[in-house]
Amino acid sequence: MREEYIRPWEKNIRSVVPYVPGEQPREKDVIKLNTNENPFPPAPGVEKVLKNMDTDSLRLYPDPTIGLLVEEIAKFYQVEKEQVFVGVGSDDVLAMAYLTFFNSDKPILFPDITYSFYPVWCDLYRIPYETPALDEEFRLVKEDYYKDNGGIIIANPNAPTSIYESISTIEDIVAHNTNSVVIIDEAYIDFAGESALSLIDKYDNLLVVQTFSKSRSMAGMRIGFAMGNKKLIKALNDVKYSFNSYTLNQAAILAGVEAIKDKQYFKEGINKLIEIRKEAEKSLKELGFDFPASGANFLFVTHKTIPAKKLYEVLKENNIYVRYFDLPRISNYLRVTIGSKEQMDKLFEFLNQYINNK
Amino acid sequence: MREEYIRPWEKNIRSVVPYVPGEQPREKDVIKLNTNENPFPPAPGVEKVLKNMDTDSLRLYPDPTIGLLVEEIAKFYQVEKEQVFVGVGSDDVLAMAYLTFFNSDKPILFPDITYSFYPVWCDLYRIPYETPALDEEFRLVKEDYYKDNGGIIIANPNAPTSIYESISTIEDIVAHNTNSVVIIDEAYIDFAGESALSLIDKYDNLLVVQTFSKSRSMAGMRIGFAMGNKKLIKALNDVKYSFNSYTLNQAAILAGVEAIKDKQYFKEGINKLIEIRKEAEKSLKELGFDFPASGANFLFVTHKTIPAKKLYEVLKENNIYVRYFDLPRISNYLRVTIGSKEQMDKLFEFLNQYINNK
To answer: Does one domain contain both B226 and B293?
Structure first.
């Protein structure tokens, strides 16, 4: 009989609940609407700059200040470059922000239904937390955040609900919490409305986090960034430099600059995506789906008769991947990424046939 | 009179001593021998694969398992792919290893003179540590590590001393500490001798960390990796997935595969570098320098009459950058990276003139 002996060093391993990323099927004929990737390619300048990259210079460390990209982001958002922090995707930026700012003994606050990494980082860094419930319609109850806390993080638009809360709701929360750092995670903001960026000069405790993964079609390059007052950004950079001075590689820096420079391509892409989202909303309604108004590049849908889990499985069998969360309150919903026109046509072709033949 | 008011949220900022990376002069005519970069370009396959990269696919997340690169590393080192963990440079891998394995209340151990990030990560994660002194010749005193501890990390070859300790010394330390995780940080091993990799099947508490930044000329791409038994690697992956599932970008994965595939280019590059190092040792001796035998792509030199700090400054004034550490015991030493033949010729041209005219 084999005995499983636990070695002493194993007892000191940090225990975490591993995050399960969305399925990444590698087959080519899959309709992949499960990880909120953008259906359009990055700005044309990205291809050009990568093809012309001086690969010999890869022998050198990249610029630890990520200067070129920080400057271009600052220019785009009309802030100072000391107000911009860049990391390896917004997950990296957010985790770094947790480590930097959430060091109180008081719990940090975030909604019960939101991005699944928020509690995971708390566990990882042993940060206490509380999760006030969203209301029945998945809306933020701002008064729940008017109490003593060690920090606040709110995704706006929220994931996976897709709901965008108005800037005045966000401002109320920030204004009621000037004693702690409030992080607004705006991964999907470009598909929604006004960013909390307009508030960073008024509130020095506000950190706004965004990403190149969604509206800039660069999930594969891993670029996220934070904007806030200079003290917040300096604190983030201090922790970053103490952790790993050289994070973004040379290719990501160059590609990022090109992606953010091309304002017209950016705007057109967003408009095209919102157009496809509108059509999808119409088709879904006709098929008996219900969903909140989306401020994101995905829809959070529930069907009046077909259980979400069943639908998820049937779609998957037909090579259409959407996201299903087997979690309290949302287990009858699917998160469906807005894909290209062609992908959505195939989705609806299947749904029409499946639902109308039931 | 202006009063500096400390806001309540500022009190919860994690305080760190920021690491100061080596100077990164951007002027083109600088002889840069200060950050241990490789003078040769990456393997030719790297340029090719980046030029042919499908940039449209950057809209998609990279493979979170970094499968292609993990497999290629496993193949190169003849280990199983479950024995390989990949991160954003070895700093990322090491910091993740600290967070994963060093969770005891007992202090972790590392030498007093070693890589400057080791104590910084301890401060960041609030890990207690002790730093047994290297002997007068900067050699490891292995008996200092035969005591109760929460983990051990040893750079071999060590930085900034360049000294390689024999595999039997390393094995003695690992064998005396089977109750804690022992990390051997082998950033420079390919310029030295046998890797501790040969011991990972014998000792399940041994983690070997290496990098693409030195011997594979890819500092600009940020790729580091760890090898060890499957339990150690799984624990690292669990923490990674809980932190940021998608770390290496698409470009780094593809470039990494090409860099490790080209065995011949790799070997030739190392041989060429060791050849230049031999010549440099000869020239330095003639100029009155002393230094330990190097197992790295740099030399750790002291001059019999000229103070290191003075020399550092004079070299810098002449656009030659080397590394000076204003630290106890090593403040009369310079760390000089082995550059290209041309760079070294210019260094010695200057040194000959400067020292002989004094």
So the answer is: no
Asked if residue B121 lies in contact with residue B24, where contact means CB atoms within 8 angstroms, the answer is no
Give the CATH number of the domain where residue A303 resides: 3.90.1150.10
ipTM of the complex: 0.95
Decide if B7 touches A, using CB distance below 8 A.
Answer: yes
| A vs B: CB pairs below 8 A | 274
Euclidean distance between CA atoms A206 and B101, whole angstroms: 34
Residue B61 is nearest to which of A24, A62, A244, comparing CB atoms?
A24
The amino acid that residue B217 corresponds to is: S
pLDDT number for residue A1: 45
Summarised one tens digit per residue, pLDDT across range B202-217 is 999 999 999 999 999 9
Q: Are residues A183 and A37 in the same domain?
A: no
Cα separation of the two ends of chain A? 53
| Domain match, B133 and B217 both | yes
Over the range B268-287, which residues count as b (16 or more CB within 10 Å of their CB) and which as e?
ebbeebbebbeebbebbeeb
**B residues 51-90 lying closer than 8 A (beta carbon) to A:** 51, 53, 55-64, 88-89
The answer to whether position A59 is within a domain reads yes
Q: In which domain, by residue range, is A220 found?
A: 44-261
SS3 B182: strand
- Asked if A214 and A84 sit in the same domain, the reply is yes
